[in-house]
């Protein structure tokens, strides 16, 4: 799954994901890479056909700017006619096309990730888990996919599995801010393991002293919440 303010998860991770983590947060929504959006997984710009672990999402480091796309080459025609814009495909059509492509080429890890991202955005958590699992079976060491899979496990109440995914992502990429932030969310808001959440976020703060949650709340303020009793998570 990009560092600075933690990216919005809903999305790139989409890898770049992430969920909309409102810290009024006592509802505790994770970051994604990806993305969609944890930080909504602000996530996720649709992934290129082959996504590398370095393209993970995460908060952009301070002062970092998005890489601009190189301009496309000019056409040979002096006055090309404007192309008719194609109507945007619906998400349902997009998913159907991905499913058809995967029936024809089931060993395409990048497409399984893309399908998982589409299900993530549609809140089809079980289907997203299956698609991300297929992607990881083909390409096991993708920390962004592991982070988004962890978010989906968290959304289905499988908190220990979510933690395992975040831990695996951090083993592969110790500076993966999305995974670290999300692990703290699960520990604090879902499992009420305050001391562990505090330790996870203190390490994130060490890696990125200016890290903030998606709603702009400073991470050091969230860490202070680890010492307070929390209301039960709203369903």
From TrEMBL:
Keywords tagged on the record: Membrane, Repeat, Thylakoid, TPR repeat, Transmembrane, Transmembrane helix
InterPro entries linked: TPR-like_helical_dom_sf, TPR_rpt, Ycf3/AcsC/BcsC/TPR_MFPF
TPR repeat start-end pairs: 109-142, 143-176
Biased composition (Polar residues): 67-78
Taxonomic superkingdom: Bacteria
Region (Disordered): 44-93
Transmembrane spans: 12-35
PANTHER family: CELLULOSE SYNTHASE OPERON PROTEIN C, TPR-REPEAT-CONTAINING PROTEIN
Protein name: Tetratricopeptide repeat protein
